[in-house]
Amino acid sequence: MILKYVYGTPIETDAVVKEVDGAEKNIPFFNVEKTEETVTFSYQMEEDDIVYGLGENVRGINKRGFLYVSNCSDDPCHREDTNSLYGAHNFILVDGKELFGVFVDFPEKVTFDIGYTKRTEMDITVNDVNFVIYVITGEDEKDIVKQFRQMIGQSYIAPKWALGYGQSRWSYMNEGEIREVVKNYRDNQIPLDMVYLDIDYMERYKDFTVNKEAFPDLEALAKEMKEQGIRLVPIIDAGVKIEEGYDIYEEGLEKGYFCKKEDGTEFVAGVWPGKVHFPDMLNDEARNWFGKKYKVLLDKGIEGFWNDMNEPAIFYSEDRLKKAFEELAKLQGENLDIYKFFHMKDLVLELANNKEDYASFYHEYKGQRIRHDKVHNLYGYYMTRAAGEAFDELEPDKRILMFSRASYIGMHRYGGIWTGDNMSWWSHLLLNIRMMPALNMCGFLYTGADLGGFGAHVTEDLMLRWLEFGIFTPLMRNHSALGTRRQEAYQFEDKKVFANIIGIRYGILPYIYSEYMKSSIRDEMMFRPLAFDYREDSFAKRVEDQLLVGDSIMIAPVYEQNAKGRYVYLPEKMKMVKMKSLTERTYEILEKGHHYIDVDLDEVIFFIRPDKLIPLSKGGQFVEEVDFEDLELLSFVETEATYELYTDDGFTKEYDKPEHFKHLISK
Ligand code: MIG
Questions:
Q1: Is the residue at 427 inside a domain?
Q2: Under DSSP, is residue 604 helix (H, G, I), strand (E, B) or coil?
Q3: What pLDDT digit, counting tens, does each position of 280-323 carry?
Q4: Angle (deg, nearest 10), helices 495-507 and 460-470
Q5: Strand 553-555 and strand 547-549: pairing?
Q6: 198 lines ligand 1 (CB under 6 A)
Q7: pLDDT in tens, 66-96
Q8: Residue of 444, 441, 448 lying closest to 469 (CA atoms)
Q9: What is the pLDDT of residues 339-388, one digit of tens each?
Q10: Residue 288 covered by a domain
Q11: Is residue 259 part of a domain?
């Protein structure tokens, strides 16, 4: 059952698509405290209560013991003590004495103090008195999540080829470098489906332009690549460069589509291209206009995009920069004591993503003029919606790949997300593992992290272990930052091992694709904590580093350096599969309970549940080469193992046809 409580006169976010009646009575479970500016919902937690959710966030599967702030932020070097990441996903599931879900639909800051200030108390504070809050009760965890997901609408569905492996780098500077990457992959027989174009494919970082010197004929290149089974996936940034003669800048200015300041002039921010304006993605007309611009690249044979910097990230605002320079000039030649020195440093450090800047420009949203900070968490959502709505018009019968950096719940209908900048740290591999169920709860199914880590220098073992987990995530992309060690799979000593591990992804693709499609179509979670399926097992609730992936398997990734294996908890008897490659496999039936499992660096392990199976293909160098007909059934038969395979053409949109679902049986 879903209960809806409307406080004041909320700003509509379009997160929810299913009508729910507003309730009159008091909100259950919570103690409510109202001030003039905020509302706090307090819940007394029992010792064994678990709090799941919050989508993209730091820390564990169980969110207890920390403070999380929904405020889309660009923090590439996030750590354990970071409070906000790129997305704002205000859904939690309380599981213990009581069982219920909560969704706070509010586009500004929401604070989830989950046993941080007081160990046994959860306080959800909404930074306003106008918002909507939903409480969802149900039979079990999966039922509550499903009700929530039905309420927010079906998730975006990516084309099948986008479930292949992608190689990215900031940046491949020209077409020669792209060809070289592809050649290296193909020569080493390491499968590959996508190469990503980062900002340098553009002419001076201008959206929807192509640098003619570096990429003289992008259309021809896209065609040449597609003949080899490769798609090029360009990045699109939120800021539009201010430059005379640049059509998008001039059109946007003339039509008044950019965000303006209080005085009615355009807000000027500094980002990649230098000075930019932000298109008012919240304004229907401006959004429609921006979305249609993707056509420029669609017309060149491009079939996928990633939307970046759409928190939006701001390096500086023109106004603040000016003031900072004035202040700095005053300090020049002075004898800087500690306070003056810090003041000087702060003048520069506080330029980026400044709170006051976010409060200095406006949107025209649903007929109202609204200050940006009041709807901050919607910007990335609406940028991606701009693209999604345009794709529906421009390419009504074709799936276009789209994923975004910033997001809010609701955006999951228009695109997936990658989890933003991370680091080549073992702790970020573990974070990636733990985040997956929470992302799925919020409808983000086409999702994954920068495998190998974006910032910092990766090592070969970290890259391998991360790929060994990444073969299970729908978005499987290796991406890294300018200046870091190259981390394409062929850059390492043992290329064969990389070919084998990535090859396993193509072997299990019929399974990964089926599970991805079924969970999207049915509003379910592909990645689940153990406790969701083994409800009566009190130990399953404690497990923070193993996941159920789809219907048939449990995974237990290795995420520690120099580990030769790991402890694994089996909530029931399962069949362990160890793979060094698609064809080199060993099996062992393991009893319920605790085990120490050896896992070599060049090995993938997973566990098949009783009477379940996983369909294995013969693999391929890219998705279209994978034969979904010629399957081997890897099963753990107790009486009879069954499986529901999903097969379709992989690019049209009639997802739910009965003929796409096939029943496989293994006795
Ligand atoms: O902050 O376009 O998260 O994936 O490579 C740098 C350059 C801007 C941030 C993205 C990252 C991308 C990078 N961008």
A1: no
A2: strand
A3: 999 999 999 999 999 999 999 999 999 999 999 999 999 999 99
A4: 10
A5: antiparallel
A6: yes
A7: 999 999 999 999 999 999 999 999 999 999 9
A8: 448
A9: 999 999 999 999 999 999 999 999 999 999 999 999 999 999 999 999 99
A10: no
A11: no
Atom number in ligand 1 closest to CA 198: 2
Query: 170 CB under 6 A from ligand 1?
Result: yes
In 264-378, alpha helices (H): 284-292, 295-298, 318-331, 338-349, 355-358
Pocket test for ligand 1, best of 237, 421, 424, 484 (most atoms within 8 A of CB): 421
Domain hosting 545: range is: 511-666
Q: Residue 633 gets which letter from DSSP?
A: E
Dist CA 383 CA 446 (whole Å)? 17
Q: Which of residues 152, 177, 196 is at a domain's end? A: 152
Separation of CA 173 and ligand 1 centre (Å)? 14
Report the SS3 class of residue 655: coil
pLDDT value of residue 21:
84
Nearest CA to ligand 1 atom 1: 309
pTM over 0.90: yes
Query: Does residue 315's CB lie within 6 angstroms of at least one atom of ligand 1?
Result: no
Report the DSSP pairing between strands 604-608 and 612-616: unpaired
- For ligand 1, the distance from its centroid to the CA atom of residue 25, given in whole angstroms, is 47
Q: Which tens digits make up the pLDDT trace of 489-516?
A: 999 999 999 999 999 999 999 999 999 9
What is the separation, in whole angstroms, between the first and last Cα of the chain?
Answer: 40
Last-in-domain residue among 126, 152, 178: 152
Domain CATH for 64: 2.60.40.1760
With the most atoms of ligand 1 within 8 angstroms of its CB, the residue from 241, 306, 308, 424 to mutate is 308
Q: Which pLDDT score, from 0 to 100, does residue 24 have?
A: 66
- For the chain, give the percent of residues with pLDDT over 70: 100
Q: Is 405 in the pocket of ligand 1 (CB under 6 A)?
A: yes
Cα-flanking dihedrals φ and ψ of residue 372, to 5°?
-50, -45
Q: Rounded CA gap, 354 and 39, in Å?
A: 25
The reply to whether ligand 1 has any atom less than 6 angstroms from the CB of 85 is: no
